[in-house]
Amino acid sequence: MIRNGILTITTFISVLLFPWPLSVLLAVATSFFEPLVPFAAGVFADTLYWAPQAGTLPVFTLYGLVLSIIAVFVRSRLSASIIGR
Amino acid sequence: MKKTFLAKRNALLSSASISWGTGALVFAALVLLVRLVAPNFFLQAFAPAFSVSNVIALKSHTFFNSFSDVAALAARNERLTEENSALASENQALLQKEASVNALIGASASQKTANPGILAGVVAHPPVSPYDTIVLSVGSSSGVMLGQEVFGEGGVPLGAVTSVTAEYSRATLFSSFGTVTHGWVKSADMPLNIFGAGGGAMSASLSRSAGVTVGDTVFAPGPGMLPIGTVVRIDSDPSAPGITLRIMPTMNPSSLTWVLLRDTGASFRSAFSLATSTL
Q1: Which residues of chain A make contact with B178, given a CB cutoff of 8 A?
Q2: What number is the ipTM of this complex?
Q3: Lower CB count within 10 Å: N or C terminus of chain B?
């Protein structure tokens, strides 16, 4: 639980302070434990930096959502299987 | 007899069931709400963090560069120093020429400083701001308006102001993905549609017979011939009728610390796709 919290907070701090490739790596790593974090971090990144006038979609939100969906799917398959029992 | 204790739980919201991911999503939604409801307060709150992240990006770039070839870096540094000296002397010569021309035509001091522009500090720039937009430390209270053109050091056009709050504004750079700017390339005197490619780069398509070569300068509309970039590569597909120019900006958006905002007229505004949102 503490590990999840530390990873989540670190990802958000990274979105705020560090260049985006590092934040993406952290979000991917966190998704193994907290599947919603990539989507949340994507929304946060686009809230900070996306401008509607930039002429592009809020890609961080979209990619975060895709990553979260994949993470949820993978976790559900793993928990339904006999692996880990 | 053992007493069974059943904890009373809210079916919709239980502190035990809230994961870090859910909490993070709620936090992100709240920050989004603040940006939508109070964009000026939002930028006030996050401006210090943007400044810190700019410093971190600069320091990390310096750190990673230190692993590069030292001899090559020293040679490049020497070459850039020489170029800088040459440009400084050229600048001085042009200033003297301007002064003599002004003296000849009798332009007054007020005419010379009729449109000095608004000096703005850059709060966030790429790579911190990954969409090739910059956040500026001046807003409508300082006279900033939508559509004003953004100039870097040496009068290099960078983009346009696309949203304004009371104390802050956002400018979209020419290199922002999806942005289309009308310009021209000098050697061929050909008009171009310059497309932002993201990451500070731009591209344009042109007829194969235009005669554009690597190193040609690309210009944008504004007061005079204003270079916005240089052709660094030409992609030519034999099956396509045209060529694609890869354009690097004259000024690196990652090194911006201040810019000048000027209203250059309707011609520029029409040449740059603008929205009116205050986001």
Answers
A1: 54-56
A2: 0.87
A3: N
